[in-house]
Every structure is written in C-alpha cells, then in structure tokens.
C-alpha cells in the first residue's frame, strides 16, 4: 500500500439516507429519516432529489447549516419534487464548519449529474486529492466526500456505474458508507470492511437505505438486512423497471472491522446493527460492568442519555436501585465552550441538572458510556458531590480510550486522551471520584457478540484495520479478495 504524503484526520459521524419509490415525492420521508438520524450529525443537513428520469441532469438540492428542522421548512420540502432522493446530516471534527462542506454534493460528469452523501472517513485523502488536482480537478470543499465524487466522475467517463464504483473502491482507504443518486438509480455502497453501518429496508412501493434501522422504522418501512461489506446495491427507478433491486458483491474481506463505538455510543439503542439490537448489547455491557466492578453503594444513576441502558443493566445485575441523579434538558440545542470556567460549568448545567433528593447522602454508582478527555466527567462528579452525594463511583461501559480514531468517530490526540499513559489511580484522582471501573475489552467483546477479528477497536488498543502512517496495522488479517 502506498505511503501517504500527509494524513488528514477528518472524522465524521454522519447519517445518510436514500429512498426510491415508484410514484410520489420522497423529500418528506427523507426529512423524517434524517430527523431519526439527527444524533449522528447536528452541523448541517441536506436533501437531493430527482424525478428518476432517463436524463441525468434534473437533480434538485437544498442544504444548509443547522438541525434538520432548521434547514427544511414545509415550503422547501414541497419544492423538492422527485420519486428518488438522498439525504445527509453532518458532524465534523476538523475542517471548516461551512456550507461548502454540507452534503449531499452534486457533481457534474459526462452524462449529466449525480449526487452523493457519505458517512465515514478516508485516511488517504491528501494523496488522492493531490493526484486529482494535478489532473486539473477543482475542489470546492474540505471533505473526503468530494475526493470520492471526483474519483467516481473520472471513472464514469469510461465505465458503467458498477464498474466505476469498483475502480473507485480500489483507490480509497478508510471507512465509507455511501448513498448515490444517479439519474434513475439509487445506489448504496459499503466499504469492504463494513466499518460504518448501512442497512436496507422496504417501503410500500419502494426501498429505503439508511445508516440505522431506526430511520427505516420512523418512515414506516421494514428492515430487510444490512448492506454487506463490499456490496453495492442499485435500485432502478426507470419506467417499467418496477423498482428493481440489484446486488453486486464487488469485494469480500477475510474479516470485517465494524466500528465498536457504534455499539458503545454512536448508534441509537433501538437500532439493529449487523443483526444485533444495540439496546441488548448495552444492557449486557451494564450487567458485565456490575460483575467486573461491583461496589458497596446505594443507587445506580446514569449520565443521560448515553449511559441509561448501561445503568439499567448494572442495576439489574447488582441488585441496587436505579435512580436518576440527573435530568437532561433536551431542548438545549448546540452549545459552545465559554472562555471562563464559571460559564463552562453553567453550559454543562444547562444540559444536566442534579436531582438532589435522589443522591443526597447516598453512595452513587454513576454510569457513563466512555471518557475521552475527562473534563466533562470531572464536572459531573463535582456536581453530584456539591449536591450532597456521599460517594461517587464511576463505572464506564467501554475500556479506556487510549488512541485516536481515524475512521469516523471524534477522538482527540493521544496527549489529550485522559486514559493515555495514565494509571487508574491517576485517572480517579483527576476525576475526583471515589473509585473508577472501566469495562474490560474481553467483557466488551462478549457483550457485543462479535469476534475481535471482525471489529475495529483501534481507539482501545492502538491497532487499526487499515494502514495509517505511524500506527500499528492489523490489515494482514483483513486482506481483501476480489469477488468478481
């Protein structure tokens, strides 16, 4: 594999959706699907639609910064008339937060236009972008999605869509789930390692493709299955095509590398990922956490919302009472970091308010999904103690995060990670907790029910499924074999 001139970390935890129906307009159901995926991205939202005609230059696009409900008014949704379309919600961690980086992207090519939306992160973006710029291609955004789009447009000059995607997949390295709107076709692509989720469902008169099954449920669809790693799905909406669904298994890996943090934090608990209900996984994690790190205490309390299911499992297995120590303000929207400490504390209190009567004078087991930098966890522990908690015992539903993620989840550098290079005693003292217990890696793997060989756990052990400059690679276990 070629060495990369520069590694651009542009981790994105985005949500994508695509719908194709025989008749009618898809903008409203895509809007609802994106609403169901809002947890995957709150920076921008966009929808592109087509009438599914033979001509490939009739794509209508609306995108803007903000939440889904902020971007799309009823008037805007009514103007997006077409029976095939794709949508995107974006969450970026580096690169400018600007409209140029919002998706879907609409790209001109030799037959007209196509639109593309992406969830994931490439690790060879810089190398590919320099190559494409030398060929005279112009970039309007900072996203690796535009690199994928240029590669695809280049190959569409000499290949049919399936072959063009096949060649593109040979070039890109990293995680990617894609939905593509190309004339009369809705296309879905999942990378050969299946790092980011993507699933297929049916509607009354068509198909839906989405990052999570909860989006399919929201629009009244029925989940069929996950898109397989290395698979391309194509829904043909041409006249008399009867929404024909075609599958092309372009690549098949020896192993997969599903993102472990989808199960720990990122996915909604009511979603089914690769055949597993996320809620059940998190319940098992909580039970296992109680087995590994039991403690004499009075109540179990979650950090909402991500710690709730873990805490229920912990309370169930430990026999302790489950009690809400915090109430979350679900109308807070996006917040920003204040320059002064007193206002930073206020920003956290805007999101979480302590229920004093539930924790005062009690020994509290506080359960959360993970700890990254530790600054927020430290404030939360302080809030409980300020309100009278006798003891606070932190229990974390993941192993310590010791390394960055390069493939789609926001984690900072090693120097900024609390657990990187620190002992458990040092972490506990920093957080001012009475004790701390992280779930073991073995306990996490058992709870998910997927072999370590088929998960990406790079942030937990520093070993990654693709080649990343300066990092340990386990790609020898994930060598891809061309299927056809």
What does this structure look like?
By secondary structure, the protein is an alpha+beta fold. It folds into 2 domains: 15-257, Aminohydrolase, N-terminal nucleophile (Ntn) domain (Glutamine Phosphoribosylpyrophosphate, subunit 1, domain 1, 4-Layer Sandwich), CATH 3.60.20.10; 280-451, Rossmann fold (3-Layer(aba) Sandwich). It is globular. Helix 13 links the parallel strand 22 and strand 23. It is built from 16 helices and 28 strands.
Characteristic terms for this protein:
single chain; 7-stranded antiparallel β-sheet; Rossmann fold; 2 domains; globular; alpha+beta; 484 residues; 28 strands
In short:
With 484 residues, the protein is of the alpha+beta class. Helices cover 29% and strands 27% of the residues.
State the fourth-level CATH superfamily of the largest domain. Aminohydrolase, N-terminal nucleophile (Ntn) domain
Mean pLDDT comes to 89
The CATH architecture of the largest domain would be 4-Layer Sandwich
**Helix fraction by DSSP (H/I, runs of at least 4):** 25-40%
The coarse overall form would be globular
Total domains, how many? 2
The count of β-strands is 28
- Roughly how many Å is the radius of gyration? 23 Å
Poorly predicted segments: 1-12, 335-339
Numbering strands along the chain, what is their spatial order in the largest sheet?
A: 3-2-4-1-10-9-11
Strand portion: 25-35%
**Terminal residue distance:** 21 Å
CATH topology of the largest domain: Glutamine Phosphoribosylpyrophosphate, subunit 1, domain 1
* Largest sheet features: 7 strands, antiparallel
Given the helix and strand composition, which structural class is it? Answer: alpha+beta
């Amino acid at each position: 594999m070629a060495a990369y001139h520069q590694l651009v970390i542009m981790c994105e935890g985005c949500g994508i959706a695509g719908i194709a129906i025989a008749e009618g307009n898809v903008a409203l159901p895509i809007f609802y699907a994106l609403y169901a995926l809002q947890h995957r991205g709150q920076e921008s939202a966009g929808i592109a639609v087509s009438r599914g005609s033979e001509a490939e230059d009739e794509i209508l696009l609306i995108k803007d910064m903000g939440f889904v409900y902020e971007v799309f008014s009823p008037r805007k949704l009514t103007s997006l008339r077409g029976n095939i379309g794709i949508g995107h919600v974006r969450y970026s961690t580096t690169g400018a937060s600007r409209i140029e980086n919002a998706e879907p992207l609409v790209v001109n090519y030799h037959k007209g236009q196509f639109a593309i939306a992406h969830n994931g992160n490439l690790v060879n973006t810089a190398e590919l972008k320099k190559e494409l710029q030398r060929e005279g291609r112009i970039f309007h955004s900072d996203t690796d999605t535009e690199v994928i789009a240029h590669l695809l447009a280049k190959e569409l000059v000499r290949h049919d869509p399936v072959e063009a995607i096949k060649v593109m997949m040979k070039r890109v390295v990293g995680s990617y789930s894609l939905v593509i709107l190309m004339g009369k076709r809705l296309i879905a692509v999942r990378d050969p390692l299946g790092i980011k989720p993507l699933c297929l469902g049916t509607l009354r008169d068509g198909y839906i493709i989405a990052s999570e099954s909860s989006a399919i449920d929201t629009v009244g669809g029925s989940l069929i299955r996950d898109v397989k790693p290395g698979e391309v799905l194509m829904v043909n909406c041409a006249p008399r095509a009867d929404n024909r669904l075609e599958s092309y298994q372009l690549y098949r890996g020896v192993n997969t590398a599903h993102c472990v943090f989808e199960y720990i934090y990122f996915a909604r608990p009511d979603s089914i990922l690769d055949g597993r209900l996320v809620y059940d996984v998190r319940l098992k994690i909580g039970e296992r956490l109680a087995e590994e790190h039991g403690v004499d205490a009075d109540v179990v309390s979650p950090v909402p919302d991500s710690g709730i299911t873990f805490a229920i499992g912990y309370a169930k297995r430990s026999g302790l009472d489950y009690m809400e120590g915090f109430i979350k303000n679900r109308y807070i929207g996006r917040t920003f970091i204040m320059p002064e400490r007193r206002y930073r504390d206020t920003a956290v209190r805007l999101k979480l308010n302590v229920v004093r009567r539930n924790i005062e004078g009690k020994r509290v087991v506080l359960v959360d999904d993970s700890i990254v930098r530790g600054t927020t966890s430290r404030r939360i522990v302080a809030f409980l103690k300020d309100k009278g908690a006798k003891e606070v015992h932190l229990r974390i539903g993941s192993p310590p995060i010791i390394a960055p993620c390069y493939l789609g989840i926001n984690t900072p550098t090693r120097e900024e990670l609390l657990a990187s290079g620190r002992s458990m005693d040092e972490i506990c003292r920093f957080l001012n907790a009475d004790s701390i217990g992280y779930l073991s890696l073995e306990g996490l793997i058992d709870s998910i029910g997927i072999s370590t060989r088929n998960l990406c756990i790079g942030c937990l052990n520093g070993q990654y499924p693709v080649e990343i400059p300066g990092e340990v690679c386990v790609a020898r276990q994930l060598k891809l074999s061309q299927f056809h």
